[in-house]
Specification:
One of its GO terms (molecular function) is cupric reductase (NADH) activity. By secondary structure, the chain is an alpha/beta fold. Helix content is 33%, strand content 20%. The protein has a single domain, classed as 3-Layer(aba) Sandwich (Rossmann fold), CATH 3.40.50. It contains 7 helices and 8 strands. It has an 8-stranded mixed β-sheet with strand order 3-2-1-4-5-6-7-8, with helices on both faces. It is globular and about 45 Å long.
């Protein structure tokens, strides 16, 4: 199993620390070139490696830790997301009208057609994630897509708790 974190801001770096604590290889990428990320990645640990977005997207499981609207640019980077698991750590304060009345997670999932999709890591601040919390909550509209990602996150970072999704327009 291979992992990547797309977005290397405070959430992306906190998650990279979680991988490093478990000595698990993870690729990190952002809109900045890998050379710009490399010093921070090395400082986190030897299992955290900065690569280009294209290289990072070769991972089986991709944690999306970018500002909400940037998910569209990431989604355009591959012609097919089949076989990938996307863990969406984004949040938005956009009005429901801007999301066509959909939950934010549905908007992001639509951009990654074919991927297994899980919403997670978005409900805690970077400081809490970096402090190594015991349990992380995940949600998913399609329960059959969730167990592999939850198993991966138990092994990699935190204990995972699956929550059923709500049907309201806010997520």
């Amino acid at each position: 199993m291979s992992y990547a974190i797309i977005g290397f801001g405070s959430i992306g770096q906190a998650l990279a620390h979680a991988f490093a604590r478990k000595s698990i290889d993870v690729t990190v990428a952002s809109r900045r070139p890998p050379e710009a990320l490399a010093p921070q990645a090395r400082a986190i640990g030897p299992t955290v490696v900065a690569r280009s977005l294209r290289d990072a997207l070769e991972a089986d499981t991709i944690i999306l830790a970018v500002p909400f609207w940037e998910h569209r640019e990431v989604a355009k980077a591959l012609p097919s997301w089949e076989g990938k698991t996307i863990i969406d750590a984004t949040n938005t304060n956009a009005p429901v009208e801007d999301l066509d009345g959909q939950p934010s997670s549905a908007v992001v999932a639509k951009a990654f057609t074919g991927a297994r999709f899980v919403k997670g890591f978005n409900h805690l601040s970077a400081a809490v994630l970096a402090a190594d919390p015991n349990v992380i909550c995940f949600t998913n509209r399609k329960l059959q897509a969730s167990p592999p990602a939850l198993h991966e996150q138990r092994a990699v970072t935190y204990d995972a708790l699956l929550l059923r999704t709500r049907t309201s327009a806010h997520s």
